[in-house]
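Work Package 3 (structural annotation) set out to generate three-dimensional models for the target panel prioritized at the project kickoff. During this period the team completed the workflow that converts sequence records into discrete structure tokens, so that structures can be stored uniformly alongside our sequence database. As a representative example, we reproduce one entry of 177 residues exactly as it appears in the project archive.
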Amino acid sequence: MSDTTLTVWQYDTAMGAAAGEVRLKDLQQQGAVRVVDAITVTWVPGAEEPRVGHLLRQGAATVTKGSVLGALVGTLFLAPVVGAAAGAGVAGLAHKLRDTGIDEGFLEEIKAGIVPGTSALLVLSSDEDIDVVRTFIERGLARGDVRLMRARLRPGAPEALKALLGSADGDRIARSG
């Protein structure tokens, strides 16, 4: 079984993730990475919440159909906080995901990095040619246009994520698109 990785490419502009999407497609065409799931999160200044787009499917309603990352982002950003501080939601989600390789610190970093005027590309991938991917990412880091976060997931994590997050979280995403 190949390793599965969750990579978050955070950009300090709302349009950065669109450029990252093009770069990710280039990496796929080179055979440097196999994308299991990928979404963009764009938070335009003045908007109340970020907009989620899916790279493998078209249309907001399809973001929810089998998108592990769509459900994850929906839970982090689009789930209403009822009678609790926002951090309690992240802690609860981290507890739910404790056996996947995604911890509370990683979730907090994602949430803190996606604010109005920024964007992110979240990629669940496997079979990476790390030399090709590293060269690509280091160019972006050198320019300062991307901040990279990475979590290596435990075996079976994508299936566990899908089961844990469930379709109820995905329904919130459909309303946001």
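Strands lie at 4-11, 34-43, 51-54, 118-126, 147-153.
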